Amino acid sequence: SGLLLIFLASFTTDNLSKEFLELLNIAQMEFEQPSGFKQTSIVDNEQMNYDYALIDSAQEIEVRYAITPLDGLIKEYEEKERNKKRGEINISPNNLYSYALETILLNIQDTKNMEPQQHALEAKVLQNGFKADWGVITLLEVNKVFSKKFRRCMIIALHKDNKADSYCFVLTNKTESNFLTKDIFKSLVFK
């Protein structure tokens, strides 16, 4: 039975790219692939880069993941603070997450249709479920540059101080909101 456990553990990490595994490690995050999904290729676009993508053809849902580790930005910020000149203002990467999300929304939304709808995640859900310091869910319609196939998107945006910002883009054409299953919702969490 020990051999079976080793095989299963290696099978799940073999499906992930080396680059995505490295991002997860640096950001101190865990990823569990939602059932029914298979890896799909990343589509280059000018709107929003992402690091990993999955598709469930039967449910017509694509999930894209983007992770921004903060370690380098924190070091850069601390260096600027140590060498700060009179009148300079430096903003900690730990205070930029909401602005980063707003920039993403401006880049990917279809401005002709619905305004993005944002809902903050409750503190209990953030801490117990995601081990994050901040998080929101945003529902919007995306432009054709970000996705040619899907129109609707639900973003789960998370931030953990000194660790990372992460974004899970759940794309579909479904109009009902029940496409966000628990295994998609909790597929990317902090350790």
Description of the structure:
The structure is a single chain. With 191 residues, the protein is α+β, with helices and mostly antiparallel strands. Helices cover 31% and strands 27% of the residues. The protein is built from 6 helices and 9 strands. The chain has helices spanning 2-14, 18-27, 71-82, 97-108, 123-130, 182-185, and strands at 29-31, 38-39, 52-56, 61-69, 117-120, 134-141, 152-160, 164-172, 188-190. The strands form 2 sheets. Strands 2-3-4-8-7-6-5 form a 7-stranded antiparallel sheet, sandwiched between helices. A two-stranded antiparallel ribbon has the order 1-9. Strand 7 (152-160) and strand 8 (164-172) form a beta hairpin. It starts with a helix and ends with a strand. Mean pLDDT is 89; it is low at 1-14.
Fraction of residues in helix: 25-40%
What is the percentage of strand-forming residues? 25-35%
Give the mean pLDDT. Answer: 89
How many DSSP helices? 6
**Number of extended strands:** 9
SS-based structural class?
alpha+beta
Q: Describe the strand arrangement of the main beta sheet, using strand numbers.
A: 2-3-4-8-7-6-5
